[in-house]
Amino acid sequence: METLRFDSDDLELTEDFLCRAYTRMSIGGDAERTRAQVTRSVVGPVSVDLLAFDYDMGHDAAVLDRICLGTIHSGSIVRQYHPDGTEGAFGPGDVFMYTPEGHRSTGVIQRARYNLVMFEPELLTRVAATAPGRRPGPLRLTGDRPVSPAAAGHLRRTIAYLADGVCADPELSRHPLLASTAAQCLAAAVLHAFPSTALGEPTAADRRDARPAAVRRAVAFVDDNAHREITVADIAAAAHISVRSLQEAFRRHLDATPTGYLSRVRLARAHADLLAASPGRGRVAAVAARWGFVQPGRFAAAYRAAYGRLPHQTLREDRA
Q1: How much is the pLDDT for 209?
Q2: What ranges do the domains of the chain cover?
Q3: Which secondary-structure segment (H or E) carries 215?
Q4: Is the pLDDT of residue 81 over 90?
Q5: Helix (H, G, I), strand (E, B) or coil at 100
Q6: In the beta sheet, which residues pair with residue 39?
Q7: What's the pLDDT band for 191 if we cut at 50, 70, 90?
């Protein structure tokens, strides 16, 4: 995991840093109080920043070249898009977004402490390909505010886990499969939270291609590659069908989704590792991370549903 820290009360140094870290911009603020602090952690394809400004910082910023999500802990942010002049104000608990399709923006960061999470748009396109009924063509986000409070809450919790869980634990962040899974979970939460062009209906061709032979090829590929960073698009390619056909095939023949089947296989591999492991502090978390389970609580719940006991009980009871 890479980390970056910035701490300065010099306005010119802060402007230079922000230009290099985000996009071209000019800033201004109270000359007597201009302290800015930024901490960045990079996990896989995602950067998670914590920013804190103890003054009102005005800014005029160019368009970013990445997807940028924000969640505010304290203070507020007022921004205005150009050329339409649309204004938005965000306070504690709010979730907002900047996209490469946006416009230059001006605004004021009002003594705010907040997270910014950034990643390439390609991550959204790749994860959107796993959605049933995904329309062909490039993905486009069509709004910068969540579609519902529940969707915003889910995204906020996902960002908090990245910031306070994965990024805060160097041992977790070193697992490539966990980093990849965490990034995909973030992208899925974004697609769930913000309006986009992601969804459509399966076609007749998709249903026609959903045959048992394709399922067998897909299952074999998953079984052989569950330890790797694979996506639903990879599984579909191995089965020689489209993603939508793959979704339809798994629904029809296995009553499951490809991602659900992949999770079951990885859970079984984690179970085998726990059976072979010696009891020790942090052993369950290490096994869960190795197999890409981002949230320990969900791993424990899924494990108990599958095996009738908690992961740590497997370690303890099988040695008793």
Answers
A1: 52
A2: 2-120, 262-317
A3: helix 212-225
A4: no
A5: coil
A6: 5, 50
A7: confident
Residues 6+ apart with CB under 8 A from 302: 263, 267, 293
For range 89-107, the mean pLDDT: 84
Q: Other CB atoms closer than 10 Å to residue 9's CB: what's the count?
A: 14
What pTM was estimated for this model as a whole? 0.65
- Span of 36-40, 190-194, 240-244 with lowest mean pLDDT: 240-244
Tokens standing for residue 285? 């978390």
Q: What pLDDT shows up at residue 137? A: 55
Q: Domain 2-120 is of which CATH architecture?
A: Sandwich (2.60)
d(CA 64, CA 204): 39
Check pLDDT > 60 for residue 195: yes
User: Where does 226-295 have alpha helices with state H?
Assistant: 232-239, 243-254, 258-276, 283-290
Q: β-strands 87-90, 95-98: how paired?
A: unpaired
Q: What is the mean pLDDT of residues 301-318?
A: 84
| CA pair distance 221, 238, nearest whole angstrom | 7
- Helix axes 243-254 and 232-239, enclosed angle (nearest 10): 80
Per-position DSSP letters for 171-203, written without gaps between them: HHHT-HHHHHHHHHHHHHHHHHHS-BS-B----
| Average of per-residue pLDDT values in the chain | 83
CA distance 128 to 244: 11
Paired with 38 in beta bridges are: 6, 51
In this structure, how many other beta carbons lie within 10 angstroms of the beta carbon of residue 52?
18
221: which residues sit within 8 A by CB, 6+ positions away?
Answer: 230, 234, 235, 238, 239
Neighbours of 202 (CB within 10 A): 17
- Give 163's DSSP letter: I
Beta-strand (E) ranges in the chain? 2-8, 25-28, 36-43, 46-53, 56-61, 67-81, 87-90, 95-98, 105-119
End-to-end alpha-carbon separation of the chain, Å? Answer: 37
pLDDT value at residue 14: 93
Rounded to 5°, the CA angle 73-74-77 comes to: 100
